Amino acid sequence: MSASRDDNLTEFHWLLEVLQTIDVGMLVVDLEFKVIAWNGFMENHSGIAPQDALGRHLFDVFPDIPQDWFEHKSRTVIQLKNRAFTTWEQRPYVFKFKNNRPITGTSEYMYQNCTFIPVTNTQGEVENLCVIVYDVTDVAVSKQELQKANVQLKELSRLDRLTELFNRGYWEEQLSQEFMRQQRSGNATSLVMFDIDHFKKVNDEHGHPAGDEVIRMVARVVRETIRASDIPGRYGGEEFAVILPDTQPEDAMQLAERLREHVEAQVVKTQGEDIQVTISLGVSGWNSGFSEYSEWIDSADQALYQSKQGGRNLVTLA
Asked: Any idea where the GGDEF domain is (predicted)?
C-alpha cells in the first residue's frame, strides 16, 4: 500500500508540474464561478499570483470578462456535460492579456482560443468548470495581415496607378451596373467625359514626367470636387470620366463647370517653367433610348467633341 501511495503521490506531483509549465492557460472555477485552480500561464500573463486569485469570484479577478456571455456559455457546458469552444474570430479574447510576443507586436492584446470543459465527480455530476486558454496571436495576426493584403491587392486592381482614380476596366463595370439600374428605375443620372486640352503639346514641350504631373493634378481636382457618391475614372491617356448617380443634367453641368474652373486655376510647377492647362467637357444625361451603356459614352463624347470644336475650355450638354 505504501508503494502504491508513493506512486500516486509521484504521479500527482509530475501532473501538477506539467500543468504549471505547459504553454496554455488553465483555469478551474466551481459552479459559483470562484477560482479553485490557476496555472503558471495564467499567472505569468495576467500578473496575478495564485494567492490573489484562488477563492475569489472570477469576475472580481477579471472585471473585463463579459459576465453574461461567460455565464451563459458555462451554464450550457455544465447542463449538457459537453465541451464548448470559442475562437479568436468569434471573440478576440476572453482574458485581456497583453501581447508580449515581439514577432506579433502589432497586436496590443493576446488573441485566444478557449475550450470550456465540464469537470465531473465519480458520480458523473459536474462540480467544476475548466477553461483552457490557447495563445493564437501569431495565427490571428498572420490571417489579418493576409486579409488586409488581399483587400489592398483587390483595391489596387481597380485603380489607375498614376491618378489613383478607377481604371477604365473597373470604371466601365460600374457604368454597366449603373446603366442596368437606370433601365429599371429611370432616375435622373448623368455622365461627364472630359480631356486635357493640347496635352500632346505639354508632353512635347515639357516632357512626359511633366505630363504625368499634369494628369495627377487633374485627378486631384476631380477627387476634391466631386461628391462621395460619384464614380470617377481615368478613361485613357488624358481623358477622364465621372458617373453622377441621381443627378439631373443641369446639376451635372454645374459640377462640370466647377471642374473646368478649378483645373484652369491650377499651376503645375516643373524644373523648366510653370504649366497651366484647361479641360474640355461633355455632359450626357440618362436617355431611355440608350440600348447599351456604350451609347451613353458616345453621347457624352459627342458633347466633348463639340466643346473642342467650340474653342476648348468649355462644357457642353449633349
From this structure: 187-318
